[in-house]
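Lab notebook page, bench 4
Experiment: in silico fold of construct C2
Operator: M.H.
Input chain length: 186 residues
Purpose: comparison with the prior construct
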Amino acid sequence: MSQKERTPPADDEKYMEYPKLIVFDLDYTLWPFWCDTHISPPIRPTYAEDKVTDSTGDQFGFYKEVPEIFKEIRENPNMEMCAASRTHEPQIAQKLLSMLPIDGEPSSTYFAFTAWGVGSKVRHFQELHLHTNVAYEDMLFFDDENRNRDVEKQLNVCFIEVTHGVNLQVFHEGIEEWRRRRKNND
């Protein structure tokens, strides 16, 4: 067998499967606050590039490793990113995403689509599915609230509970869990 005919090693990153859609909740998943409770509008950028300030002078930003995660997703042509948030103030969430930069670019540009509003996350995922045409089993969802595991039970979305904000380790473990489940379902 020639070198070209050999199967690539199973751990070779460029040959591994990835979820087509990575979905993040916002509050206590991407940032350490509830945007509809802790922020007093209006918000404005700060001199520190990675924060915004509200009307009381409090500063808000992403968990430390979120920008690296966003960049990793964008660099992988096999993945897209969306948000699903039950926030009562979607305009504040959208403003935060438009004002919190990553490498000088609004973080909102990293999202292919956002599903906002009160109600079930199942409804949010049905909306994401209709907008992206990505099958539920090709989605990976990070959220801090275990009650949102209903997307896994009802739609077969891979759910990863985030207990202290998403970081690179949790993100990579989530991808591995998605791969493991995918392999077990084949």
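Observations: The domain at 17-185 is CATH 3.40.50.1000 (Rossmann fold). The beta strands are 21-24, 44-45, 52-53, 59-60, 80-85, 101-102, 105-106, 113-116, 139-143, 158-161.
Next step: discuss at group meeting.
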